[in-house]
């Protein structure tokens, strides 16, 4: 049987913006149908809630601090290989259509197809803009275009991405392939035609404690980020607006466009595995915050993940992470998972949802974007989340700890609550070990020396280990610093030599 995978991806779709996750007011019939035909993950997390870093983790299988994309507008290292490169080198056809955000250029990309992907179908946002007149370029960046007479779906980036995806499926339906269709929508300017442009007029979210969080025991970053919302009543934060209506309408429009591709898959590649996810979410007023930044709140970090190709109609409550997608794809194509990939294959779980892959998942943040002076600037965050608990370390700010069972809205910061000392410290140790295991270049004693952590002594040598990389599919074996000879162990205690 042919081996075929299609990854469908949207930008800034919160989990509760997909109908099958429980909000009946969200109109996403195609993703809802995909969930019925596959499995839906309740506890899937992004590796970093920013476009570029999130995508870098998905398509390299390495965390942002490893692949180099620690913020928007920073490119990957030359020795970092994407899943497209790895599969192409194993004679598997690979297509990437849509937003890329990994070349270190501006928001739209540089228009150049990276190694491993089929250049005939390469279609980043710069490629799209190159098709437009200067007048239409301006229209494409103006949300008001959605309400102008004569505006149609054919103008949008989403529609043109779907057209190319359908053409790709027609061309390669009879062979193994890996195709990604990466929509910019519903990310602003959230262009969408009628009826989507007015579909959510008058909508606002149900009242919840998250809108009433006063942030008094939260990081200063969040208090500054809240701005004028810090002391506003919920009625001013959670309310119907033209911007929210268009954003949610564009989300439903993206679902419509994905439906076109899903219909083509059903016809042309019915046995293909289909993976849907979003890079991150949006606060949309929760905790008095908007957009995304150095936070691990579920609104930005707990992303939708739906996979068709194994079990059907089931919900997985075990922890899942974007870091596991690339290893899963390698495993699906019966290829070895490279040692440089920092996740694990989910394939066994896709076929049998009772299988447990992760006890905990990790989310990080360094800064929002190199280009921007604002958005808080440097914000060093590392987080670990289990089904019940979430620990968030802000290196330069107040830390957070939540009991998700008793406080599902993540309002009560229990970082200093002695009743949680044992489990909090256990998660802290696991987070520090993860930073060591993945050679997090920002690790150091400062992450250990937290005000709430007793009896921890700083150490110049930290762990005392040297941790070289085994990237031997594409590089010669690294040489040991002390001998100049090929390393015998990738991880060894330098203090013993």
UniProtKB/TrEMBL annotation:
Pfam families: Sulfatase. This is Sulfatase-like hydrolase/transferase. InterPro entries: Alkaline_phosphatase_core_sf, Sulfatase_CS, Sulfatase_N. Keywords: Hydrolase, Metal-binding. Residues 4-333 form the Sulfatase N-terminal domain. The keyword Transmembrane does not apply. The keyword Cytoplasm does not apply. Belongs to the sulfatase family. GO terms for molecular function: metal ion binding; sulfuric ester hydrolase activity. One of its GO terms (cellular component) is cytoplasm.
């Amino acid at each position: 049987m042919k081996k075929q995978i299609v990854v469908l991806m949207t930008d800034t779709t919160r989990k509760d913006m997909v109908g099958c996750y429980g909000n009946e007011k969200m109109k996403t019939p195609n993703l809802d149908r995909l969930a019925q035909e596959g499995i839906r993950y309740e506890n899937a997390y992004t590796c970093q809630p920013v476009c570029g870093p999130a995508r870098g983790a998905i398509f390299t299988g390495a965390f942002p601090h490893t692949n180099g994309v620690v913020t928007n507008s920073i490119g990957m290292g030359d020795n970092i290989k994407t899943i497209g490169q790895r599969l192409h080198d194993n004679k598997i056809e690979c297509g990437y259509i849509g937003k890329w955000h990994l070349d270190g250029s501006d928001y739209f990309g540089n228009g150049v197809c990276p190694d491993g992907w089929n250049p005939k179908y390469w279609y980043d946002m710069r490629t799209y803009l190159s098709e437009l007149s200067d007048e239409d370029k301006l229209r494409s960046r103006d949300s008001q275009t959605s309400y102008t007479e004569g505006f149609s779906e054919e103008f949008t980036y989403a529609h043109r991405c779907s057209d190319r995806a359908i053409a790709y499926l027609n061309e390669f339906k009879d062979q193994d392939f890996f195709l990604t269709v990466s929509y910019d929508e519903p990310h602003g300017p959230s262009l969408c035609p009628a009826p989507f442009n007015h579909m959510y007029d008058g909508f606002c979210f149900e009242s919840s404690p998250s809108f009433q969080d006063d942030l008094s025991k939260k990081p200063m970053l969040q208090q500054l980020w809240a701005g004028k919302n810090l002391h506003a009543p919920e009625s001013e934060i959670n309310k119907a607006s033209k911007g929210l209506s268009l954003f949610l309408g564009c989300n439903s429009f993206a679902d419509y466009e994905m439906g076109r591709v899903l219909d083509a898959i059903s016809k042309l590649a019915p046995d293909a595995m289909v993976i849907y996810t979003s890079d991150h979410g949006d606060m949309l007023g929760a905790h008095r915050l908007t957009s995304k930044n150095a936070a691990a709140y579920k609104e930005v970090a707990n992303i939708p993940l739906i996979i068709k190709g194994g079990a059907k109609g089931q919900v997985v409550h075990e922890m899942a992470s974007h870091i596991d997608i690339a290893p899963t794809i390698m495993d699906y194509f019966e290829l070895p998972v490279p040692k440089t990939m920092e996740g694990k294959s989910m394939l066994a779980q896709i076929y049998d949802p009772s299988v447990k892959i992760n006890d905990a998942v990790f989310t990080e943040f360094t800064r929002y974007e190199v280009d921007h002076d604002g958005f808080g600037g440097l914000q060093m965050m590392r987080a670990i989340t289990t089904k019940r608990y979430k620990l968030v370390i802000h290196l330069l700010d107040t830390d957070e700890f939540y009991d998700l069972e008793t406080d599902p809205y993540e309002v009560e910061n229990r970082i200093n609550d002695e009743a949680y000392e044992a489990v909090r410290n256990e998660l802290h140790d696991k987070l520090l070990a993860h930073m060591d295991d993945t050679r997090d270049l920002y690790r150091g004693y400062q992450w250990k020396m937290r005000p709430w952590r007793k009896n921890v002594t700083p150490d110049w040598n930290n762990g005392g280990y040297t941790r070289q990389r085994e990237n031997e599919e594409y590089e010669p074996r690294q040489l040991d610093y002390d001998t100049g000879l090929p390393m015998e162990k990738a991880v060894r205690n330098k203090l013993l030599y």
